[in-house]
Amino acid sequence: MKKNTEKDTPETTVEKQLKNLGKRITALRKKKGFTNYEFFAYENKIGRSQYGRYERGTDMQFSSIVKLIEMHGITLKEFFSEGFDIKEKP
Fold first, then answer.
1. What is the pTM of this model?
2. Cα–Cα dist 87/28, whole Å
């Protein structure tokens, strides 16, 4: 019988970064003082189920990311400066 190890089911880079995306979106919402994602979605005219998917790290369109970043009043650079494993080219 094969032992279930972390190497048997590696998480892809995309999956890891999507989880990081969801965590970053959640952190920004909480930083704005919204403890409830549904209220944040309502206040910003986003469907609550859709916004919930964003925070869970589901794949999303770039235009949706840009809209979320604009809601928080930050730049793309600021958004991606925290919480992501971005490797620089040597």
1. 0.78
2. 23
